[in-house]
Each structure stands twice: as structure tokens, then as C-alpha cells.
Amino acid sequence: MGRRGARSRPGNRTGRTQIAGAAGLKERSFYRYFPDKREVLFAGNELEAHLVAQVEAADPGLTPIEALLTALGTAEEIFRPREFLLRRGRVIAANPALAERDLIKLAAIADALAPALERRGVEPGEARFIIDVVLAIHRRAMPRRLAEPDTTLAQLMAQAAAELREAVAPPAPTIR
Fold first, then answer.
1. Which segments of 119-152 does DSSP mark as H helices, in order?
2. What single string gives the DSSP state of each residue in 55-100?
3. Whole-number Å distance between alpha carbons of 82 and 5
4. CA distances from 38 to 22, 42, 43, 102 (A)
């Protein structure tokens, strides 16, 4: 179905023309940036490309998890303003299809990061495991970043990683 047909589909509450106009763009320009109106919420592939570049440029002495944590800690260079992220979170939470799309975007980021870790010598299964752990740390840190605007994402990622280490570390033996 062409763009014109998609525009008139029932259930579309906000059309691309309205979104483009609100952004100060012509509809054709809008399509150059966003192939789909929902993509406005997901930053295209910019975050994915940034993270891969950061992992590839990371100090070779860093462990794979440190390289990923460092890369994600720099992601706020790509993130939109805090108010946008707060509104985005509410919109996604209220719309199951957008929540699903958010998960698909995260999976695409993980898929892109795996080869970057593999080029650092990490076995594929281990790379995917490390990525999943770091994304879980990020999911813990990001809401805090929105609630604590004076704290950097890198600081909150380090805090969440420390919480994870504390949660999985065996208790220290007690001396009697």
C-alpha cells in the first residue's frame, strides 16, 4: 500500500503530515529522516551506530563488559532531551505495539553489538550474554537518569553494575 493509502487508514490518530508540520518539515523531508511516523520515537539507527563505534574504539585493555558499559555510558550524546524521553516513555508504555517495537529496536542493537564484541575476541554466545547483561544494567539506569537529571548516565550505569555485582557475588565468609 502506498503512502497515500497508509495515510487514510482507520485508527491513525495523528497523520504524518501533522507530525511533519509540527517538526517544521515538509512530508517528503520527513520521509527522508523517518521511513515510518513511529520511528520518530526510536532515533533510527543513530544509537546503534554510535554504540558499535564506541565498542570498536574502546581501549583494548577493557574487558568486554567494561567496553559495553563505557559505550552505553556515552549514549546520552545521542539521546534526545529529557522531556522528550519522559513523553516517549509514557507513549510507549500506553501502546503495546510501540512497546513491542521498542523491544525489536533493542534486539537490533544487540545484534549489531555482537559482531563488535566478536572482533574483540569474544565468543559469539558469550558476546550475546554480555550484551544482555549490559542492556539489563542500562534498563536499571535509564529511569534513574530521567529522575536524576544532574547525574550522568555513565555514573548511573556504574551504580547499576555495582548493584548487580553485589546481588550476584557470594556473601563473604564470616570469621568466628
1. 124-147
2. HHHS-TTS-HHHHHHHHHHTGGGTSPPHHHHHHHHHHHHT-HHHHH
3. 35
4. 15, 8, 10, 10
CB 128, CB 118: distance < 8 Å: no
Sign of CA dihedral 145, 148, 150, 156: negative
Record the cell numbers describing residue 98, joined without a space: 510501540
Q: In 3D, which of 67, 59, 23, 87 has the Cα closest to residue 161?
A: 67
Question: Which DSSP state fits 14?
Answer: S
Task: Map grid coordinates 569474544 to a residue.
Answer: 122
Closest to 49 measured CA to CA, from 77, 8, 29: 77
Task: Evaluate if pTM is beyond 0.90.
Answer: no
Cα–Cα nearest to 113, from 52, 68, 169: 52
8 A C-beta contact, residue 106 and residue 47: no
Please count the other Cβ atoms lying within 10 Å of the Cβ belonging to residue 174: 5
What letter does residue 174 receive in the DSSP assignment? Answer: P
Taking residues 111-118, report their average pLDDT: 96
Average pLDDT estimate for 129-134? 96
Single-letter code of the amino acid located at 34: F
pLDDT(140) > 80: yes
